[in-house]
């Protein structure tokens, strides 16, 4: 199996077997103000939201995780079937392997998502570093591969710096993102992979015309840590050390969400989002939706019903938060009062000074 495909299988194995979680997303520092007299019926609360003209039943995104190895087909099938059943959004992992390798079993790990989720909001995924090699037609092939409703361009340069075989030339990526955004047939989402997007970077992306920003902040799965485990396995001791040193690097998700939302009107909050309450807090901070990746991995291995069960739990948690903040709709929740405490408040204050 080619190197890119084997790497995808390594990533899933490490996430399942090793400690790749960090803390500090910042949601513990966000307190939504309680409404003791909500004057609404909990079961009549409308959790629906719209993403690029597609109405979702709830502002929940199954974040890009996997694809590119035959072993991942089962996972993507379960995730996509659940997205279809519950009408939430879902992304696939990097499609680089699908674009560069001619292998039907490998391609099925991506194409299965549209096969089983004909109506779901699905988005594709290519790396910013690969845009230096790809033209717009190549990205269109990624769109066509899964009949995507949008395309994510992921920023993962810390991860690449730790990989022994990583792409470490970041020159020209913003220009390439702008070129794709101008010409692609579907909306473009630029997403980080666990280290967050600061206000200044979000503004550059907004100026480049991207349709949404997924902050994927510090505080959840650490790709630096994952690559550190991979480096250790091949005896790359320096990369192993660097991966551990930068394990908790980045802009915390709560901070990144508020900063990105101050300069762009469509922000997805991910990175350490672990509950419907976290999603509610993210929306109050300015996000359009909240995304989760690792929490869906174990349910996906169990099957579609387990993924649906998690989505329904997240939805009930979100609905409860909306009820006790007096928010009858997601737009109401975006105006909910909140208090910022602790490290997150200090971080935001320092950034304002």
UniProtKB/TrEMBL annotation:
**SMART domains hit by this protein:** IMPDH
A molecular-function term among this protein's GO annotations = isopentenyl-diphosphate delta-isomerase activity
Give the UniProt record's GO annotations in the biological process aspect: isoprenoid biosynthetic process
**Chief localisation class:** cytoplasm
List the catalytic activities from the record: isopentenyl diphosphate = dimethylallyl diphosphate
Where are the bilayer-spanning segments? none
Protein name per the record: Isopentenyl-diphosphate delta-isomerase
Q: Which gene encodes it?
A: fni
């Amino acid at each position: 199996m080619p190197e890119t495909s084997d790497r995808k299988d390594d990533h899933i194995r490490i996430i399942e077997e090793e400690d790749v979680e960090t803390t500090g997303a910042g949601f513990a520092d966000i307190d939504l103000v309680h409404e003791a007299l909500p004057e609404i019926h909990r079961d009549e609360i409308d959790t629906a939201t719209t993403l690029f003209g597609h109405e979702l039943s709830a502002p929940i995104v199954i974040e890009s995780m996997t694809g590119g190895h035959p072993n991942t087909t089962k996972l993507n099938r379960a995730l996509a079937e659940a997205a279809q059943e519950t009408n939430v959004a879902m992304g696939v992992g990097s499609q680089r392997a699908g674009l560069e390798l001619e292998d039907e079993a490998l391609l099925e790990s991506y194409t299965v998502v549209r096969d089983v989720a004909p109506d779901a909001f699905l988005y594709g995924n290519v790396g910013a570093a690969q845009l230096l090699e790809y033209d717009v037609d190549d990205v269109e092939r990624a769109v066509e591969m899964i009949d995507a409703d949008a395309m994510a361009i992921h920023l993962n340069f810390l991860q690449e710096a730790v990989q022994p075989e990583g792409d470490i030339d970041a020159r020209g990526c913003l220009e390439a993102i702008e070129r794709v955004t101008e010409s692609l047939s579907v909306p473009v989402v630029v997403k980080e992979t666990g280290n967050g997007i600061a206000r200044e970077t979000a503004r550059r992306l907004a100026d480049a015309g991207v349709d949404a920003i997924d902050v994927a902040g510090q505080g959840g799965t650490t790709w630096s840590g994952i690559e550190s485990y991979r480096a250790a396995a091949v005896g790359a001791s320096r990369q192993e050390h660097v991966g551990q040193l930068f394990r908790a690097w980045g802009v915390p998700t709560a901070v990144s969400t508020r900063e990105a939302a101050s300069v762009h009107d469509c922000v997805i909050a991910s990175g350490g989002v672990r509950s419907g309450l976290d999603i509610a807090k993210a929306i109050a901070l300015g996000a359009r939706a909240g995304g989760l990746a690792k929490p869906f991995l174990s349910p996906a291995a169990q099957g579609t019903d387990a993924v649906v069960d998690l989505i329904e739990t997240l939805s009930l948690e979100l609905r409860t938060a909306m009820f006790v903040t007096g928010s009858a709709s997601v737009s109401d929740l975006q105006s909910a009062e909140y208090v910022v405490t602790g490290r997150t408040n200090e971080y935001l204050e320092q950034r304002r000074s």
